[in-house]
Design goal:
Length: 444
């Protein structure tokens, strides 16, 4: 059996190492090959080539995507217990309490800083490339016919009674939050539990911490099983995405797609600069995190990727587990740089199509809402575009315009999710370094 049963004697660290050994054999290369083959095969099945009827291609691709759906589902299944266990251990495990106290405000300020950089890059590139100038309102109205935009998210735009709304973030019933999968409430609950445990006697807190340890290890075992499936999963998911995507739609929206991708690339360079400032080799850094990036790209979900992100932080970046246990779940929930950048460019693109001048105040509005959306939106596929409707309405752009960019959303979602996950990992390494951990061994 590829996975040995953990014995009583195995320490949690050795146990985790054991899991990793099994997944380290050039997994990233297998995923990359699967991605390439999936793209080629998916293209052959797609409406652009049309070797078979669309309905048959869709049915076939659904079966090919089966391991992918399975993979995604199991990762999603472990996310909530893993977020809770990791946050609790990150805050109260071992001697990490004072560490996290130091970390908490810094990481939130850091997240706000990087999201502001992302939005600024979006504003700059949106104005530099002017992607919307290529399309006129008549063309646009044809594409928008019959499209119903997503509803406005009142929680983002309503500025009345902010104190009450802040308090509203604390879950009244944590079990209801867990049942409904409300990640932000779950994270807040786990943070409360973690800090409360640090105030208790060891005798009383130990059972909960032991349970959290077991839950965390249990989740990682499930992840290690699933990760063996990753190349097949990625192949299937990419075939499925390609069949639904259609390459012709990407070409038609060329300049818009290029603008978003260039913006995301610049954000990646920004992360490379950050790690360089920390004294690391950025190439080595990206090599270390590529597994998480590839899974994020293939699943379009930073929440589903979170267990892998966590594993990469601990095993490849070798950060202090107390730091990753805090920053990864938190970042997955409240930090989405790629999404914020994308929403900004999409807003500018549609403003240009509809010939609406965005004032400095509107830009500020986009910045604020993109940051707020980053906190409030779950890391699941396609949510970025749903929240976009709210941003558009608040700066006077018809949300029906979303119909224009919907066709290329999947591919952009894959790319922005990769940036979201890279942002969380970069935050983790920054916090680890800020806390002066000397034992970082990122050279393998
Ligand atoms: N799919 C993205 C994520 O999971 C969110 C988005 O739609 O932008 O991070």
């Amino acid at each position: 059996m590829w996975f040995k049963k953990s014995s009583e004697q195995t320490s949690p660290k050795a146990f985790r190492r054991q899991i990793t050994e099994h997944v380290q054999e050039k997994l990233w290369l297998k995923i990359l090959v699967a991605l390439f083959l999936g793209a080629v095969f998916g293209y052959i099945l797609s409406p652009d080539v049309a070797i078979m009827k669309n309905a048959s291609a869709a049915q076939l691709s659904a079966w090919i995507a089966f391991p992918g759906y399975l993979f995604l589902r199991v990762l999603q299944m472990v996310v909530i217990p893993l977020v809770m266990a990791s946050l609790i251990l990150g805050i109260a495990g071992g001697d990490s309490a004072s560490l996290v106290k130091k970390l908490s405000w810094r990481v939130i300020v850091y997240f706000m800083f990087t999201t502001t950089v992302a939005v600024s890059i979006g504003l700059l590139f949106g104005h530099m490339f002017e992607p919307g100038q290529m399309m006129n309102v008549e063309q646009a109205s044809g594409m928008m016919q019959g499209y119903t935009p997503p509803p406005v998210n009142e929680a983002l735009t309503d500025s009345s009674n902010i104190p009450k709304r802040i308090v509203g973030l604390i879950p009244k019933n944590p079990f209801a939050s867990i049942a409904s999968g409300d990640m932000l409430s779950i994270v807040i609950f786990a943070i409360f539990v973690g800090f409360a445990l640090t105030a208790m006697s060891t005798l009383r807190s130990k059972p909960v911490l032991d349970l959290a340890h077991s839950v965390q290890d249990l989740c990682m075992v499930l992840v290690s099983w699933m990760i063996r499936l990753a190349p097949y999963a990625v192949f299937g998911l990419i075939v499925d995405a390609m069949v639904k995507l259609g390459v012709s739609s990407i070409v038609a929206m060329g300049l818009y797609v290029v603008t978003v991708l260039t913006g995301l690339l610049v954000m990646l360079i920004f992360y490379a600069l950050i790690v360089t400032v920390l004294g690391m080799n950025p190439v080595q850094y990206f090599k270390n995190i590529r597994e998480a990036q590839l899974i994020a790209f293939s699943t379009s979900s930073s929440a589903a990727t979170m267990p892998v992100t966590m594993r990469v932080a601990d095993e490849k970046l070798k950060v202090n587990p107390a730091v990753s246990g805090f920053t990864v779940p938190l970042g997955t929930t409240i930090n989405m740089d790629g999404t914020a950048l994308y929403q900004t460019i999409a807003t500018i693109f549609l403003a240009q199509v509809f010939q609406i001048d965005l004032s400095a105040w509107d830009m500020m509005m986009v910045l604020t809402l993109a940051i707020a959306a980053s906190v409030g939106t779950p890391g699941t596929p396609g949510v970025g575009i749903i929240v976009l409707a709210t941003i558009l309405i608040s700066v006077g752009i018809p949300p029906e315009g979303i119909a224009l960019i919907l066709g290329v959303d999947r591919i952009l979602d894959m790319c922005r999710t990769t940036i979201n996950v890279t942002g969380d990992l970069t935050a983790t390494i920054v916090m680890d370094r800020l806390l002066g951990k000397e034992s970082l061994k990122h050279e393998e």
